[in-house]
């Protein structure tokens, strides 16, 4: 039977490279590109069909940063497919990033320099905002929209007769100290990206605890530092091009500088080939590229706490009930308003 694979944020960067790699690995795979912009989704499909003319590629409108869009997309998925084999939770944003150049310069002369380049610890902050659903945008996009999608799709994902893999694109920037159970949306801090990625690591662990017995397995990957629209938002693309020789040199010391979307998608495509039961729920699977340009995947233990992951899971369930209630009330208000308008006409 053909494997059904859904990828969020599939129209560019690592998501698009993953689709390309999956089709090269298995031309029979049934791909669904879940994107918020249908024009970009069409362009991605055309690019994939140019190299894989017989590929089965469907498009789905999904804005993971909008609760209504997630619910609508989940309904559509349930109508289209009676099973999903892989759900790649890849869409992500890093709005208004700011590099601390002073810290970067200081770090260059410290013993921590490799760690700094690999994780961006102490180098990067972002400016978040509240979205139309009243949630912090980075949290809503990188974590909560995906969580709601998984919750809505549980009947399709949790089928004991076959396994499904959830695969989160996390980051080496995910850091415990950026995350707080008292502020899971990161209202107060300046590292919403790091917080949201650490939250995805915790959530993946909790999803395994709750759903492995139902055939659902969750993993997290880190693609390394990759040149994509996300990184072009941090520094302009011409700057990255200028410093490319320096980056190749740094790659000799830290294999996390994968640089191309193809290399960054290594761990995502490696996981496609693994038996989910054999994976370690406490490991992050890193895409790595050696100084000579060879790609490989390496699991590294994550700094996770079982109680913390359960507490986050509980909070997400509570937030889910709250937003569902709010959406229901809004729909009822709208219906009442329409009825009133009909009567007064
Ligand atoms: N590049 C890097 O160095 C690293 C990236 N990552 C992670 O990799 C993932 C992919 O990012 P990358 O390929 O680098 O960057 P890109 O910006 O190229 O890709 C991000 C993708 O997510 C989509 N997306 C963003 N917001 C939404 C939304 N609300 N609903 C649906 N889709 C959305 C984008 O769509 P659109 O084109 O419409 O904006 C795009 O397709 C992200 O989760 C990122 O955090 C992790 C570590 C390092
Ligand atoms: C000489 C040189 C390489 C300069 C660039 C300095 C910084 C802009 C980068 C150093 C480490 C990078 C990094 C990321 C962004 C750019 C850096 C801070 C990420 C945060 C991008 C998104 C991620 O998810 C993880 C990356 C870690 C490393």
TrEMBL record:
Q: Name one Pfam family in it.
A: adh_short
Q: Which GO terms describe its cellular component?
A: endoplasmic reticulum membrane
Q: Which reaction does it catalyse?
A: zymosterone + NADPH + H(+) = zymosterol + NADP(+); 17beta-estradiol + NADP(+) = estrone + NADPH + H(+); 3-dehydro-4alpha-methylzymosterol + NADPH + H(+) = 4alpha-methylzymosterol + NADP(+); 5alpha-cholest-8-en-3-one + NADPH + H(+) = 5alpha-cholest-8-en-3beta-ol + NADP(+)
Q: Which UniProt keywords apply?
A: Endoplasmic reticulum, Glycoprotein, Lipid biosynthesis, Lipid metabolism, Membrane, NAD, NADP, Oxidoreductase, Steroid biosynthesis, Transmembrane, Transmembrane helix
Set out the biological process GO terms recorded for this chain's protein.
Answer: cholesterol biosynthetic process; estrogen biosynthetic process
- Could you say which EC number(s) this protein's record lists? 1.1.1.210, 1.1.1.270, 1.1.1.62
Pathway terms, separated by semicolons = Steroid biosynthesis; estrogen biosynthesis; Steroid biosynthesis; zymosterol biosynthesis; zymosterol from lanosterol: step 5/6
Please state where this protein is localized: Endoplasmic reticulum membrane
Answer whether the UniProt record assigns the keyword Cell inner membrane to this protein. no
**Keyword Oxidoreductase part of the UniProt annotation:** yes
Q: For this UniProt entry, what is the primary localization, expressed as one broad class?
A: endoplasmic reticulum
Q: Which residues cross the membrane?
A: 230-250
List GO molecular-function terms, semicolon-separated.
3-beta-hydroxysteroid 3-dehydrogenase (NADP+) activity; 5-alpha-androstane-3-beta,17-beta-diol dehydrogenase (NADP+) activity; estradiol 17-beta-dehydrogenase [NAD(P)+] activity
Membrane topology per the entry is:
Single-pass membrane protein
Q: Quote the subunit structure annotation.
A: Binds to the short form of prolactin receptor.
Name the protein family: Belongs to the short-chain dehydrogenases/reductases (SDR) family. ERG27 subfamily.
How is this protein named in the record?
3-keto-steroid reductase/17-beta-hydroxysteroid dehydrogenase 7
Q: Supply the source organism for this entry.
A: Albula goreensis
């Amino acid at each position: 039977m053909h494997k059904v694979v859904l990828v969020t944020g599939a129209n560019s960067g690592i998501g698009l490279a993953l689709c390309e790699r999956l089709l090269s690995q298995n031309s029979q795979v049934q791909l669904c590109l879940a994107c918020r912009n249908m024009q970009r989704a069409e362009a991605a499909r055309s690019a994939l069909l140019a190299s894989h003319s017989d590929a089965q590629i469907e498009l789905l409108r999904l804005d993971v940063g909008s609760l209504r869009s997630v619910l609508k997309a989940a309904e559509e998925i349930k109508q289209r497919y009676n099973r999903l084999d892989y759900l790649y939770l890849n869409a992500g944003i890093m709005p208004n990033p700011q590099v601390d150049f002073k810290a970067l310069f200081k770090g260059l002369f410290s013993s921590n320099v490799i760690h700094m380049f690999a994780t961006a610890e102490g180098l990067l902050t972002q400016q978040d905002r509240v979205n139309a659903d009243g949630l912090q945008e980075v949290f809503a996009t990188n974590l909560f929209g995906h969580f709601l999608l998984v919750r809505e799709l549980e009947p399709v994902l949790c089928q004991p007769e076959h396994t499904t893999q959830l695969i989160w694109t996390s980051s080496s920037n995910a850091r415990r100290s950026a995350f707080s159970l008292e502020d899971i949306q990161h209202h107060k801090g300046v590292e919403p990206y790091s917080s949201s990625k650490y939250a995805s690591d915790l959530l993946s662990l909790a999803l395994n605890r709750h759903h492995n017995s139902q055939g659902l397995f969750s993993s997290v990957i880190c693609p390394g530092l990759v040149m994509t629209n996300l990184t072009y938002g941090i520094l302009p693309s011409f700057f990255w091009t200028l410093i490319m020789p320096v980056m190749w040199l740094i790659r000799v010391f830290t294999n996390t500088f994968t640089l191309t979307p193809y290399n960054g998608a290594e761990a995502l495509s490696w996981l496609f080939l693994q038996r989910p039961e054999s994976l370690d729920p406490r490991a992050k699977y890193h895409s790595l590229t050696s100084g000579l340009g060879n790609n490989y995947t390496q699991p590294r233990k994550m700094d996770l706490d079982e109680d913390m992951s359960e507490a986050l899971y509980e909070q997400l369930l509570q937030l889910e009930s709250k937003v569902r209630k709010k959406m229901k009330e809004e729909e009822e208000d709208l219906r009442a308003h329409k009825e009133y308008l009909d009567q007064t006409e």
